[in-house]
Amino acid sequence: MTDHKRRRVLAAATMALACLAGGAEAAQCGNSAGGFEAWKREFADEARGRASAASLAALQGTSYSTATISADRGQKSFRLSLEQFLAKRGATTIVSRGRALKQQNAALFASIQQRYGVPPGPLLAIWGMETGFGAVRGNVNTLSAVATLAYDCRRSAYFTDQLYAALTLVDRGVLSAGTRGAAHGEVGHTQFLPKNVLTYGTGGDLNNVGTALTSTANFLKGHGWQAGAGYQPGEANFAAIQGWNAASVYQRAIALMGRQIDGE
C-alpha cells in the first residue's frame, strides 16, 4: 500500500471514529427551559437498556421546574455565620421540640441507637432542620426536579446519577410520577435524594417517621459513624455529619443542636 493510499485509509477511519463518538455524546445540558424537551428525548435514547420503558415514560411526563432552579441558585443562608444561621433556622425551637420528641419516642430512639450506634440528638437535629419535624416536606414534583437538575449544566453529572436512581425507584414503586418533595428532589421526613434512598433506605416509605429516622441513622453509619464516639467538630463522628451536607455552617449547626438535644 502506497503512503498516499495509507493516508486516505487512516483519514477515513478517523472520520468514522469521529462519527461514532458523535453519536455517543451525552444528552446536551442547558441553562434554560428551551432545550429541556429535546434533552429528555436524548436522555431516554441513552438510557434504554439501563432504565425500563415504564420509568422512561414517567420521565417524558416531567416538566422543567423553575422552582427547582430558583432554589438551586438561591441558597444564601449557607453563607451566614453560625449564630445567624441558627437564628434563621429557629434552633431554639428545634432543640426544645427535639427534646420533647426524644422523650415521646424513647423506645424508637433506643432501638435505633442499639442497632446503628447513633444517639437521638443528631437525628432530631437533622429532622428538625430538614422539614421542621415533618411539617414542611416540599410540594415540587420529584421527577421533574431531578430531571431539571440533570439537564441543568451546573451539576449535570451529579444529578444524572440521581435521575437514574429515581427511575430505579419508580420501577420499585418507591417513587411515582406524582411524588412530591423538596426542590432538589429530596423526599421524606429527613429529605433523602434518590441515590441515598437506594443506598441507605431501610425499606418502606420515607414519609413514615420510623423509616426516615432509621434510614438517616443508616446513612450516618454508612459514613463512618462509631458508636459511643463524639460528634462535635474535631471528634470522630463529625465526618459522618459532614457527609450529610456539604455546607460547613449546616454541619456545625447539626452538631451543636444535637448536643443540646442529647443534654450534653
UniProtKB/TrEMBL annotation:
Domain Transglycosylase SLT: 36-231
Xref: Gene3D superfamilies: Bacterial muramidase
Signal peptide boundaries: 1-26
Protein name per the record: Transglycosylase SLT domain-containing protein
Species for this entry: Methylobacterium trifolii
Key words, A-Z: Signal
Upper taxonomic lineage: Bacteria, Pseudomonadati, Pseudomonadota, Alphaproteobacteria, Hyphomicrobiales
